[in-house]
Design brief:
The protein has 84 residues and is an all-alpha fold. The chain is built from three helices and no strands. It has one domain.
Length: 84
């Protein structure tokens, strides 16, 4: 391959990696907001009772959904290893 093609390929790979990084950072921010919201719910739940149990259930569901944001998922990007 000539140098110009390699430079173009390098730029495309860098752009894909930056897009992936932006996507993962946005997922991290969303998970943080969800975890913060569930923490606020628990703090405002009050004494034990039906409302307290319902708030804890919602907070638990929010925490689980936030943790699911960290599991690997496919991302529409170029397969860099196949290009090499």
């Amino acid at each position: 391959m000539d140098r110009e093609a390699l430079d173009l390929l390098g730029q495309e790979i860098l752009a894909e990696r930056e897009a992936q990084l932006r996507h993962f950072e946005s997922q991290d921010a969303k998970a943080g907001v969800i975890l913060g919201f569930s923490g606020i719910l628990v703090a405002l739940a009050g004494p034990a009772g039906v409302v307290h149990a319902a708030v804890l259930a919602v907070a638990f569901a929010a925490a689980i959904s936030a943790l699911m944001a960290f599991f690997p998922r496919s991302f529409p990007a170029l397969d860099v290893h196949a290009i090499r």
